[in-house]
Structure formats: C-alpha cells, structure tokens
Amino acid sequence: MPLTLWLSLAAICAMGAMSPGPSLALVLRHTLGGGRFTGVTAAIFHAFGVGFYALLTVWGLGALIAGFPLLFQLITWFGAAYLAWLGIKALRAGRAGALEPSAVATNRSQAAKEGVLVALGNPKLILFFVALLSQFVTPEMSGAAKAIIVLTAMIIDGGWYVLVAVVLSHSQILPWLQQRAHWINRITGVLLIALALRVVAGPLV
Known about the structure:
This protein is mainly alpha-helical. The chain contains 9 helices and no strands. Helix content is 79%, strand content 0%.
C-alpha cells in the first residue's frame, strides 16, 4: 500500500475514532467510574470490535464491488447521508451530548464486555466501514494490504481511546472539556459533513 494512500486511510480512521458518540461516552464513563486502567480496558476491547468490522469489510466488500457495483454505490450514498445526518446532529447538539457520561462504579470485566458490545452495536461504525473504509478495498488487493487496513483501524481506534482514558483520568481535564463541548460538537459536525461530501464525490482509490 502506497504511503500516501495509507495516510488517507489513517486520517479517515482517526476522524472516525475521534468523533463524539457512544464509544467516547463509554470510555469516559468507565474512566470516571473505575479509574485509568478500567478506561484503558474499555478502549482496547472497543478496538477489537472495530477490528471485527474492518475484517468483514476487507473480506466481503471486494466481491460486492466486483459483482454489484450499483448496490455498492447505493450503500455508499446511504452511508454518506447518514454521516451528513450525524454531522448536522452534532452541529445542533450545543453543549449536550457524548461528553456528559454518568459517573458510576465499574470494573475491568464490565468495561471489556461493554467495549466490544458498544463497537458491534454502533450503527455509525457499521456505516463508517461500508461508506468509507470499503473504498480502500479492491478485488485484487493482497492479503498484506488487507491486514494493513484492519490493523490500522484497530490501532488508531484503540490508541485514541487509550489516550482519552489516560488524559481524562486527571480530574481537571473533564470539566475543561465539558465547558467547551459546544465547540467540540461543532468541529465534529463540520468534519462529518465534509466526509459525507467526499464520499459522494467519488471513490478514494
């Protein structure tokens, strides 16, 4: 995989991981309720769920692209519409949203289970992989390139949320973020809408 293409892949995975949503709320809640290592556990197991979807993407969507290009185009447009809707929702969220988790006591076992389940049950993740990550998959792609896609998605997702857990384990950081949640929501909304427009414009490869 060329470096420039991988950098595009990494940037898209990073923006997907960093967008506020149930995944961020999960890591915040377990960090607040169980401490740094509980939050890190939630982050790592969330990355396993992301890796599962990435694996399904590189295994199955190459055949979909080759055999049903119109169906794939329709799915891509639907994914773009959903991304745009998420962006509009983030722009309208104001100060509310994912940065207000309920701080309840949790443990590592619960964090691991919920980390996987939130990843697997998040419709945003499903459509993210269909609409965006699948555009890096081609029918003739090698096994090594597919492995790079899966590992990139897992490492960036896990690395981001581990960083979130580590940073937010310091008690002075979360109030600062909550005070600026409206700006975080606005920036995220603009990025999601820009991604949706990029998807509609055409494939990335």
